[in-house]
Input
Amino acid sequence: MEVNNKIGVLIMAAGKGTRMKSSLPKVLQPMLDRAMIDYLLRSVAVNLNNIAVLVGSGGEQVEEHILKFNSEFKQNIKILWQREQLGTGHAVKCAVDWWKDLDDLIVLNGDLPLLTSQTLDNLINKFNLNKPDCAVITFIAENPGAYGRIIRENNNKIRIVEFKDANEAERGVKEVNAGCYFFTVKSLLKVIDNLKNDNAQGEYYLPDVLALMNNENMRVEAYAVSEDEMAGVNTQAELAQVSNVMRKRILEYWMGEGVRMLSPETVWISPDAELSRGVVIMPNVQIWGKSVIKENSYIGSGSILHDAIIGESCELVANVVIENSELKNFVKAGPFVYIRDNALLEDHAFAGKFVEIKNSHIGVNSKVPHLSYMGDATLGHDVNIGAGTITCNYDGEKKNKTIIGDNCFVGSDTMFVAPAQVGDNAATAAGSVITKPVPENALAVGRARQVNIDGWVKRK
Ligand code: UD1
Ligand code: CA
Output
């Protein structure tokens, strides 16, 4: 679609979101692992570049969030203020200086996270083709709840009545107002000042402009879209529902790209994650943030990834938690492994049962198979770490490094009291406490010698 600079998009996000019962402004409520408003902003920003968000309640927080969004996505979304929240009609009026010189204005409720850019494009095209004074987007709600009802009069006029103001017959109508409106600016300017607040909520309702336009014999149209994209989010239950719809969309996208999932109903993937064909996702997996999983890797049950980079043909056996870390290719980990804080495991490395690896570099083909903690450590290639080995990296004040060369063999239950250094091809005896550097090719023995006291048990 061609970008039309004379179209502006005003997103209303100044409301309190009282029904959320949360101190966080409604539009910042987390949906998967992003703020709810990000989904709408991303859809809108695909083809439109003149966007403003109207903030008010919790406005500083929303403003800060939008500024971050702008820098993350190289956008230039404007912040406008509605200091007092007197209703959606009042909201649009507050922004009049921003939109009055445009040709057309799209107004969106801030709580429409499921709207896609394709649908928005289709609607813009339809509006441009028909050029009415106003087009309101509607859908047939299975359960119309508290949505504003679309009333189609005998003379083909369309108006909206809010649920709280509606009579029994009107409440029975299933066609509802989605909270998405297209206006010809010239027409909107003519009526916006005539809104009244003599209604059940004492608010200036934007939907009332339809009746005002009808009175002026302006042309008002209604465009119906699917309910799947237009759910408004007012409560925690509705947030859970739309999150689930978004979750399914993301999963379907990745399955379309060749990702195999055994039980998609239990899998959560962030909108920012990137998967590849041949990836297998077992039940109960969560993949968050900007995680990347390359071809043919296997993500076992119970694994949780946050900003993890997983190379090709890796295997996370089960219950592997990875945060801000990278696995190169053919790495195997798990079950029950925690890898965090800029850890890097090179090709064919292995982190086995009950192992924690923090801020460490594990070299090619090196193995940490059982019950170990590697913190602030650097391991060369082909190192074998015996079961129960620990880097004692914290001296009570600061973190210290352990550096282990290539081809080292570390005996079980070795304690490296960091800072510690081990040369290439060296070994440590099982149970050693290493407090001095170990030269290359040496065996370090750092344990008490065994003494046998004959007959001791019998005497006792
Ligand atoms: C609104 C519509 C209703 C429609 C529904 C669709 C009105 C009066 N009613 O109801 O017809 O069916 O959306 O989801 O518009 N906001 C402001 N300033 C305000 C008040 C609201 O910016 O003074 C913002 C809110 O932050 C929100 C949006 O406008 O993003 C809609 O407000 P909300 O209270 O959610 O309206 P609904 O009751 O859902
Ligand atoms: Ca709403």
In short: The chain has a mean pLDDT of 97. The pocket of calcium ion (ligand 2) is lined by residues 109, 111, 232, 234 (CB under 6 Å). The longest strand covers residues 175-184. DSSP finds ten helices and 40 strands in the chain.
